[in-house]
Amino acid sequence: MRGAFCLTNMIIDNHNYFKRYCTNCGFMHAIRLKCSDRFCPLCCKADYKRLYDKYLPLIKESEFLFHLTLTHKNKKFLNGNIVQKLLQDFNAFRKDAYIKRRIRGGLSVIECVHKDDSKGWNLHMHCLMDGDYIDQDYISKLWLSITGDSSIVHIKAVSDRYKKESRALALHYLLKYVLKPPHVEGSCLEDLKADYNSAFYRTRHIVAYGSFYDASFSLEDGVLGFDLVCPVCGGTEWITEFDLLCMENMAYRPG
Questions:
Q1: C-alpha to C-alpha distance for 35 and 42, rounded to whole angstroms
Q2: What's the pTM value of the predicted model, to 2 decimals?
Q3: pLDDT (tens digit, 9 = 90+) per residue, 177-198?
Q4: 255 pLDDT exceeds 60?
Q5: The CATH fold of domain 41-214
Q6: Which of 8, 86, 223, 231 has its CA 20 to 30 A from that of 161?
Q7: Is 3 left (phi over 0), alpha (psi -120 to 50) or beta?
């Protein structure tokens, strides 16, 4: 291994980084790892790009695509149990025998906003589904029977809602809730942000199912692939910082 290992191309911020080094010249390539702050603009943009590139081919190949919105009644407070209840209700919706026959696959995003202290938190699911069209009245009655207090739903064919490049625009619309930090307003803004991060801790905002499931996003995507060509020397062999540390420990170990 030749060359000095330097950190000059490392971005200074609060994120952890996965680092690998060119075995030929020592150039370091750093990949920013996702943090736990849903309000982080760097992570939001990175998630959006990976998800858009991953799901666009499936969206374009879908036979019949429609946009479905399922809402929950506003909640005064937000915690992890409320978020999990929304996900559980959505799973129950998808397992309904009639719905299951009509939907081949889909992609859904949780939207959670707080605009008014008196109204509290508003949670709902935005879904792009590939399947046969379903009557809105049936969905509304089913959703009310599952949630117990929420019946507001909306369904629209993508070709009717979006015009030029309708499917790409539909995916962008869905993922815009990943691209930007959550909309949170209120008298105790920092407390509300902390509540949001706590409620969604280790919870995916993206839910993939059916024919879309195999393309679901994984944290390892784009991190462990060692196909990068070194921009300094053109080398293609890389070593991780963990391997480098082990080699250094071996070198300093007493004989």
A1: 9
A2: 0.70
A3: 887 778 888 888 889 989 998 9
A4: no
A5: Replication Protein E1; Chain: A, (3.40.1310)
A6: 86
A7: left
